[in-house]
Amino acid sequence: MLTRLKAKSERKLAKQICRVVLDQFDKQYSKELGDSWNTIRDILISPSLWQYAVLFNRFNYPFELEKDLYLRGYRTLQGSLPYYPKSMKCYLSRTPDRMPSERHQTGNLKKYYLLNAASLLPVLALELSDGEAVLDLCAAPGGKSVALLQCAYPGYLLCNEYDSLRVRWLRQTLESFIPQPLINVIKVSELDGRAMGDAQPETFDKVLVDAPCSNDRSWLFSSDSQKAACRIQQRNNLPVLQVELLRSAIKALRPGGLLVYSTCTLSKAENQDVISEVLSSDSNIMPVDISGIARTCSQDFTFAPSNQKCSLLVIPEKGKAWGPMYIAKLKKQKKS
Ligand code: SAM
To answer: For ligand 1, atom 17, which residue shows the shortest CA distance?
Structure first.
């Protein structure tokens, strides 16, 4: 009976896959990723295989839930990363289990945030320390801002988001997870990220550019196929925007500061090509080797082979259904 129900719900979900998007991905990704696209594809089109990580909120720690998750076979994300703050606790399910999301209640901090575990890698790659000035350039709905605050107490955190509706969502996320005294070091702005460099030049020790991108998982399930076709057509414009956002972020970074660029697409044009373009056109920017993350995290994540040492691409696999997530790390040279 259960198997029949599962098959029925899988058929229902399968119907919602947007054909235009899948055809485009088949064409592009089989060229870019070869045979591994078939495995990745199987995961992406089967939401029943997706996994959800549970990031604990250190400001309202769920001790009871921790015991429960142990009993349900969850385990913590490997703490053997080169940089892994003790204050960050994230539990991963071995199977495609999904905890219910908590409801927003004014005045009550939420205890956990559900996320794709690969979303933590860009945050960890920033190696945050207490007191630093940090910019989250494309911040809504706020998952990575919340994760940043699990790692350290920044001296100043600017969460920026261009879309005014999503800014509301961002504010609500921050209010739901972060206690008032810390909220005071966080500012929310609504700038076009491309203007941030001129607005706040050489201000930040660390910058995260979690860029608008093709968002492979959600595009595959677009309910409006006309809109999806339109997006596919305009997809070629994304790398231009991504390079502009990166250039602005670099301006906002102080000399010696670190920047992490991330996307949740497999698309080479929005990942490696964007980073190559920035590296080849700005002699102040140096790649930072992050291959150590791939070596120490291979138990939890699968990475695509890469010829860029400053970047990683997490690809979904059964039992490690995290990603897609591209992460690149750059450093702005100190002035001599
Ligand atoms: N970092 C977020 C998180 O972890 O919850 C997800 C960010 S999402 C991948 C990219 C965000 O960039 C979207 O909310 C989108 O509205 C925003 N965005 C799009 N164009 C932008 C721009 N020109 N400047 C700043 N943000 C922009």
So the answer is: 138
Over the stretch 192-221, which tens digit does the pLDDT of each residue have?
Answer: 999 999 999 999 999 999 999 999 999 999
Set out the domains of the chain in order of their start, with CATH numbers: 17-49+118-332 (3.40.50.150)
Query: Phi, psi at residue 133, to the nearest 5°?
Result: -90, 125
Residues 125, 290: contact at Cβ < 8 Å?
A: yes
pLDDT (tens digit per residue) in 63-118: 999 999 999 999 998 767 878 999 999 999 888 888 999 988 888 999 999 999 99
> The tokens 């140096």 sit on which residue?
286
CA of 79 to the centre of ligand 1 (A): 28
Q: Which residues pair with 209 in a beta bridge?
A: 261
264 is catalytic: yes
Which residue out of 90, 138, 151, 264 is catalytically annotated? Answer: 264
What is the signed CA dihedral for 289, 290, 296, 300, rounded to 10 degrees? -160
